[in-house]
Amino acid sequence: MAAICQRDEPGPVLDLLREIASDPSNNANPGILDVDIILDNQGHTGLHLAASLARQRTVTALIANGADIHRGNYLGETPLIRACLATHNADQQCFNTLVASLNQSIRTLDTAKKSVLHHVTALSGVKGRAAPARYYLDQILYWIAQHQGGDFRSLVDLQDEHGDTALNIAARVGNRSLVRTLLDVNANRTLSNKLGLRPGDFGVETEVKSDVTLNFMSWLMRISRNLRVVQRLRTFWHRYEPVLRHLYKRVRMSFQVRLPHPCQRQSTYPCCL
């Protein structure tokens, strides 16, 4: 653990894991490298620690040596989930690289049926963690838009053991920014938890976003390779959407041509005698 915490050098970490694996009391098959060996009393493996501390080189080396990216700790939390519960990846602005390495575990749930989005939205309710939570959510959704065809619905509408969706949690903790982001990817606002509470019960606006808004957001995330551009355009759209809609209707009405009934049309050709 100390080797991972001190620096991002995979060599010493793998050597220490081999040393631990050689001890018969720690490994049922001494001499065989087990990179998924448990290192603490919470069930964390080396990949959990490296991911949460933003040690990308170590993460890559562990995966190359067979580390299981779906492996959970005693609570079922994957390395990707553990990374979202810490701020190191946000501080170093390197979470996009980690998502690329662990993307296959984006839809892996913990023992409470919580997805990585459940944990991110819950994190946003902790004092001082709203900005990292927004960064993590944007990077995950950006990856899905770019590499998984924009299949947001299969993730954002997952319900945990209490019936809560990520939108329900974001609304309950009062993070309007995350609520808007989840609505932009068409999160279902009508799903209630086991207590019958919906996002609207926590103050989420009840108007349904139009297909124009949803299609625009999905298209924007798919074509843009710069996340900052997506964020700025999304903020612009939310701020000026009513004005843009009004202008669109006025322009459409001003250029609308009402054709006369076919029986009332006059021929443009002169009569031939």
Describe this structure in words.
With 273 residues, the protein is mainly α. The protein folds into 2 domains: 1-111, Serine Threonine Protein Phosphatase 5, Tetratricopeptide repeat; 113-244, Serine Threonine Protein Phosphatase 5, Tetratricopeptide repeat (Alpha Horseshoe). The protein is built from 14 helices and no strands. It has helices at residues 2-6, 10-21, 46-52, 56-64, 79-84, 88-92, 95-102, 116-123, 130-147, 153-156, 166-173, 176-184, 211-223, 227-254. α3 (46-52) runs antiparallel to α4.
In short:
It contains 14 helices and no strands. The chain is mostly helical.
Fraction of residues in helices?
40-55%
Topology as H/E string? HHHHHHHHHHHHHH
CATH architecture of the largest domain: Alpha Horseshoe
Main beta-sheet strand count, sense and barrel state: none
Oligomer: single chain
User: How many structural domains does the protein architecture include?
Assistant: 2
Integer-rounded radius of gyration: 26 Å
Under CATH, the topology of the largest domain can be stated as: Serine Threonine Protein Phosphatase 5, Tetratricopeptide repeat
Q: Compute the separation of the termini in Å.
A: 102 Å
Tell me the name of the CATH class of the largest domain. Mainly Alpha
Number of strands: 0
CATH superfamily of the largest domain: Ankyrin repeat-containing domain
Please tell me the overall pLDDT: 80
Total number of helices = 14
Low-confidence runs = 264-273
State which percent range the strand residues make up.
under 5%
Estimated structural class: mainly alpha
Q: Overall 3D geometry?
A: elongated
